[in-house]
Amino acid sequence: MATMKANTIITLALATALALATAGCGGGSDTVPPGGKEVRCETVRIQRTDVPRLITATGGLEAATTIMVSTRMMGWVREVYVQAGQTVAAGDPLITIDDTDLMAKRAQAEASIVEAKAVLTNAERMVGRFERLYAEKSVSKARLEEVTTGRDRAAAGVKMARAGLAEVKVHLSYLDITAPVDGIVTRKVIDEGNMANPGMPLIYVETAGDMKVVAHLGEKDVASVQVGTQVTVAVTSLEGAIFNVPLTVVVQTANPGSRTYDIEADLVSSDPRLKSGMFARVTVPIGTREAVLV
User: Are 230 and 246 spatial neighbours (Cβ–Cβ below 8 Å)?
Assistant: First the structure.
């Protein structure tokens, strides 16, 4: 019984408040009661409009260019000159591969040149001798041509031996691996004494300066973005590190593990605080939605 009485009192109070509000905004008398306060109300038009629909993708910073340094020649690693985190300039030594086998081949190639030159010298003497004999009509023309052909083969042998030495020298140049660009060593994959094979990663070098952000979108959203879509990148650990940039890459194939699609944007910035691996949030517009504006 007490509960019903309380509900009745609350209902009457709400009705009274509503009546007073209606009277204040209604079309009755404009006269303000004695001791009362004038209340003015303004009518506002409600509008429906389309606003951007935004999602936030997570990702991280990477160097604009990352180079995997490898070798063209198989061999034992004799020396490693750098460590992860070290700054290098283009041409700085990174790794030296053992040259024992190639030095033996070089000596062999040099000996082949000496031998080929000796054969050529002898062949040239033979040609000179047979030319004199032919002039005296002591040998046939066919015999002279045969000796001349032997000299030409000897000359070709010298060229071949020299080419073999040049090839060995080129291979020797591959044993001294240098930094391809100015940058920072981010990973050292091999140590001294290990075997290096062609195409095998040895060292990773990132270019210094410009960075890019790589984030990930779900399959429902990737169809709504394209290269050139303007996004906002916020590096969460750095105050004020916010960039409005266009997308430069929208990968059309999903990552097998995560079933997400990579998107990339270049961050052209001189901010030295930006480091590879930093966490970032990328706000991406993916169409519009209807909203009510007051």
Answer: yes
Put simply, whether the predicted model's pTM sits higher than 0.90 gets the answer: no
CA-nearest of 288, 234, 224 to 261 is 224
Q: Which residues contact 14 (CB under 8 A, 6 or more apart)?
A: none
96 phi, psi to nearest 5 deg: -120, 130
Question: DSSP 3-state assignment of 109?
Answer: helix
CA distance 71 to 128: 50
Q: What are the structural domains, with CATH classification, of the chain?
A: 54-64+210-293 (2.40.30.170), 65-98+176-208 (2.40.50.100), 99-174 (1.10.287.470)
Q: Quick one: 280 exposed, middle or buried, by C-beta within 10 A (0-12, 13-18, 19+)?
A: buried
Mapping DSSP to helix (H, G, I), strand (E, B) and coil, where does residue 173 land?
Answer: helix
Segment 252-294, tens digit of pLDDT? 999 988 899 999 999 887 778 888 889 999 999 887 777 666 6
Least Cα distance to 92 among 209, 187, 203 occurs for: 203
